[in-house]
Amino acid sequence: MKILLLNDDFTGLKDTAFDGEPRGRGGAAIVVASLAEEYARAGHTVEVLTTHQSDPQSIVEERTSHVCVTSLPIRYPKRLRHYLTLWNPKASRLISAFLKANGPFDAVHVHNVHSFLTYNAIPLVRQYSRNVIITFHDAMSVAYGRIGTPQYLEKNDPHLTILDHVRLAGRSYNPLRNSIIRRMLRSATTKISVSRALREALEKNGVVVDAVIHNGITALDGDALEKRTQELRRMWNVEGKSVLFLGGRLRKEKGVLHAFEALRMVRETHPNTVLLLVGARSDAEVLLRNYPHADVIQSYIIITDWIPQSDVRAALWLSDICLTPSVYLDPFVLVNVEAMSAGKPVIGTRFGGTHEIVENGKTGFIIDPRNAGEFAKAITKLLDDPDLRQRMGNAGRERVQKNFSLTKQVQQYLDLLSRE
Questions:
Q1: Is 176 found in the same domain as 93?
Q2: How far apart, in whole angstroms, are the C-alpha atoms of residue 259 and residue 288?
Q3: What pTM, to 2 d.p., does this model score?
Q4: Range with the poorest average pLDDT among 13-27, 46-60, 403-417
Q5: Are 247 and 278 in contact (CB under 8 A)?
Q6: What single DSSP character describes residue 405?
Q7: In this structure, are residues 6 and 110 in contact, taking their beta carbons and an 8 Å threshold?
Q8: Domain span holding position 112
Q9: What digits encode the pLDDT tens for the residues 153-191?
Q10: Among residues 394, 383, 232, 400, which one has the least CA distance to residue 313?
Q11: Exposure winner among 80, 123, 253, 348, fewest CB in 10 A?
């Protein structure tokens, strides 16, 4: 088959402009890169259409023996986001030119288009393929931001009111946005969600989903990571310390402040504990400034800044516990799967799709991050019991192999893409 994938950003082609950071930091970009390589490895011709914002003029094309990536120069004023992400004349012109030059396609797999490729890309690609799948990685098709309303956090109800939309969007609120998105989504032949939690949120806000396909990964190889793990252990000076891992986009909604509070409590009885923050230093420093007890814990926090994905895996390997304490509907936290593949127990949020990955009491603990006592108690329980950490880590690795392998994910998608 000739397959086209679309995503707003992309990473993953070695020795090209798309190799590593800072491009493609989001989970969707990593997933799309993995799918592109696997589709090609299965014998299919693969094209990827993405965007960049650094150069407003040049179209970037990169090609390996397996995958061809075309990146379009698309950017706009942030205040116009909820208008120009529906239809942007420049984006539509560039996408149409690409499709005319490279189409038709046997199948198209759309991912995140809600920032730069625009929702209008969906009806455009439909003209060049009879089979257009869209995978929702977040709730942006029905929301103006992350779903963390009081209604959701207290009652687990992801339905959004007009007032919720206005609060999230502020002055950029577009009353026609969601109805226009729903109309453009009609061009997709199949709609997929990456978790049951996200599916519920989409459907309660007007977008019907056909199926759930969880993201998958290639199992981590500890032997291959061992040398780099030891190097990072020395570089970060964590030899002999208990290491808590928290990585990704370090924002308030990711529960970082709640992790700070749990760390403060844990250190009273476990003074050899450190928190490894793997993400943007600038974001971490802002959060630390907003934490009232920063002076107490600052010396026990290690901020790595953005590091290559291979180093993220090595960081997981050297850690003792992985924390994913989001306080919003976090659809599918890929680092949960990566941590379990590394044999690490996960203390994860009850909000979003984490409970579909982490089995409470078996591969980790599911907690409400806002309850600092509960959060700290879960960390302490694992620090006090190395055998429990080992058992949970082993169970997590087995669960990933059975339920969250990249092979399983790819086959599910190829079955859909090959449908007539």
A1: yes
A2: 11
A3: 0.94
A4: 13-27
A5: yes
A6: B
A7: yes
A8: 2-216+406-417
A9: 999 999 999 999 999 999 899 999 999 999 999 999 999
A10: 232
A11: 80
Provide the domain count of the chain: 2
Tokens of 307: 């590091």
Q: Are 10 and 33 in contact (CB under 8 A)?
A: yes
CA triple 335-339-345, angle to 5 deg: 125
Please check the confidence at residue 247 and state whether its pLDDT lies above 50.
yes
344-358 in b/e form (b: 16+ CB < 10 A) is bbbbbbbbbbbbbbb
Q: Which residue in this structure is represented by tokens 């993405």?
A: 50
Asked if 339 contacts 346 with a C-beta cutoff of 8 angstroms, the reply is yes
The Cα–Cα gap between 85 and 76 comes to: 9
Q: Find the length of the chain.
A: 420
Phi and psi of 126, rounded to 5°?
-60, -25
In this structure, are 230 and 107 located in the same domain?
no
Report the C-alpha gap between 58 and 67 in whole angstroms.
20
